[in-house]
Design a protein that fits this description.
The protein is α/β, with parallel strands linked by helices and about 525 residues long. It has 22 helices and 13 strands.
């Protein structure tokens, strides 16, 4: 049987994320389009314009999370909180009613002071007002008691780690594998309702499932297509964070495991981001071979020309001689950014720029408040994300790129995307002593390693780099690793998997520069 022409092959890249912040989904979609496939990129709507990618149809879908939020909207108070409101609507209505009643009583009190002058009428009105006040006090006590119990029940449902929750989680393990995940993580059903009809309408021949949560959605779309006489292949792009990162509760961990066990073995092919996780997947799901490894790396570009003062430096309005370190990526306590903020008082005129997906996120505000407490708020700059194809050039005007992550399983096994972005920006790096990134830094000589969460050691490492920046930059000139860490090289095995799955002709990967 002859191979299928590439242009006739429809590929859907399906992501459980907002597309503007998902650099890997964008890179995958563009690589497939440049290879000649008919590509649709599907992700979550977030109220912002969808990214515009050459040759790619981009679709954003609202995911209301109705089933997922039902747990907290109707928290089933039970015996522990017998007075709690039974649903969010009742809680909102009663608390709003109480607030209005209080405002009306305040108004009535003012009226009694200015309207009723005759003594008899004034006395009667004030007696009625006192009675209304007493009724309000009783109602307020009752409403606040019920509201407090409702809020406690919601908190418990939001983080289900009590005895009864853990018992229900343990009992759910007795369900068939294909049913347990539905009971434990209703968000997966919300994704099915949102994405399933879109996949059926687009009629792809290959679905690239970007992350565990959309793998089941892709597989069920393939079953429906088979019933309609079409063949759909499914590629699972497994993210190490989705499995190795600590779960918020035992229920979340069991749900994650049940979902993966139900669907992973049915994927037609698997890729991931690091060798260690690839081997874990092969062992856990008895795969015939380890998944292909595809780093989320930027494209290789020649940056031998001198840097200008644009990009991140211009966004911070800093002169070329002002030292600047940068962190690109999402923020969370385990990312170690508090270490950076607390080091600023000891690093004198050094400025820090955090390029984040949501500048108004709660933890970003926490970092800003801590910087203000330390008196270094003017030296902390919060900037929004830039498109993936521009990120390396944007960062290039900084002096140091930092990856101060804490010791967690998913931080130990892979080169973070921002580490690769710093490398392509030719920035010296300062990284915590997590296994893979520390080993790469020591081997390449492009930066310094410090003890995770140790502010004093972070200050030492940053000082060492600032005193000899050209030495660390030259490491990129001496090594061929930038070619290995480029999207031109990393996308080659991905396109080979595509060609194998859909029977399209293979093409030679894009030529790399001589350095690669």
């Amino acid at each position: 049987m002859g191979s299928t022409p590439r242009k006739a092959v429809r590929i859907a890249v399906l992501a459980d994320s907002t597309l503007g912040n998902d650099s890997r989904a964008q890179r995958v979609a563009r690589a497939a389009a440049e290879a000649g496939y008919d590509v649709t990129l599907i992700g979550r709507a977030d109220g912002r314009p969808a990214p515009v990618l050459p040759g790619v149809a981009v679709i954003t879908v609202d995911v209301p999370q109705t089933l997922f939020r039902h747990r907290t909207h109707r928290p089933r108070p039970g015996l522990r909180w017998p007075l709690a409101y039974r649903c969010a609507e009742a809680h909102r209505y009663r608390t709003a009613q109480l607030a209005v009643r209080e405002q009306l009583l305040r108004t009535r009190s003012a009226e009694l002071d200015v309207v009723y002058r005759p003594l008899a009428r004034q006395a009667a009105a004030r007696a009625a007002y006192s009675l209304a006040r007493a009724r309000y006090a009783v109602r307020r006590t009752w409403t606040r008691a019920r509201a407090a119990q409702y809020q406690a029940a919601v908190r418990r449902r939001g983080v289900p780690d009590g005895f009864l929750d853990n018992l229900a989680t343990a009992l759910s393990r007795l369900l068939p594998v294909r049913r347990a995940w539905r009971r434990l993580d209703p968000l997966l059903l919300d994704l099915e309702a949102a994405y399933g009809p879109v996949l059926d309408e687009r009629r792809p021949q290959l679905i690239h499932a970007r992350g565990r949560r959309v793998l089941g959605v892709a597989l069920r779309a393939a079953v429906r297509a088979e019933a309609a006489g079409r063949t759909v292949k499914v590629l699972w792009d497994a993210d190490e964070c989705a499995v190795l990162a600590p779960a918020s509760s035992r229920r979340a961990a069991v749900a994650r495991d049940a979902d993966e066990r139900a669907h992973a073995a049915e994927a037609d092919a698997v890729i991931t981001v690091c060798e260690a996780y690839a081997e874990q997947l092969r062992t856990r799901h008895k795969l015939p071979a380890p998944p292909a490894v595809v780093l989320n790396a930027p494209k290789y570009q020649d940056r031998s020309a001198p840097r200008d003062g644009g990009g991140v430096r211009a966004a911070c309005r800093l002169a070329p001689e002002v030292p600047l370190l940068v962190h690109s990526g999402a923020v969370a306590p385990e990312r170690g950014l508090l270490t950076v903020v607390e080091a600023l008082p000891k690093l004198y005129d050094l400025h820090a720029a955090f390029v984040v997906p949501e500048p108004g996120a709660p933890y970003v505000r926490t970092l800003i408040e801590r910087a203000a407490e330390l008196g270094v708020a003017p030296r902390l700059h919060i900037l929004p994300f830039v498109p993936p194809e521009e990120i390396a050039g944007f960062l290039a005007s900084a002096d140091i790129g930092v990856v101060p992550v804490h010791h967690l399983p998913h931080h130990e096994v892979a080169l973070a995307a921002r580490y690769l972005e710093y490398a392509h920006a030719r920035l010296p790096v300062v990284v915590s002593d997590v296994r893979v990134m520390a080993a790469a830094t020591l081997s390449l000589g492009n930066g310094e390693v410090f003890r995770a969460a140790d502010t004093a050691d972070f200050v030492r490492a940053v000082g060492a780099v600032l005193t000899n920046r050209p030495r660390y930059r030259r490491a990129y000139e001496r090594s061929p690793m930038l070619g290995q860490w480029s999207w031109q090289r990393q996308s080659a095995p991905l396109l080979e998997v595509y060609a194998r799955l859909v029977g399209a002709p293979t093409i030679a990967g894009p030529a790399l520069l001589a350095r690669t």
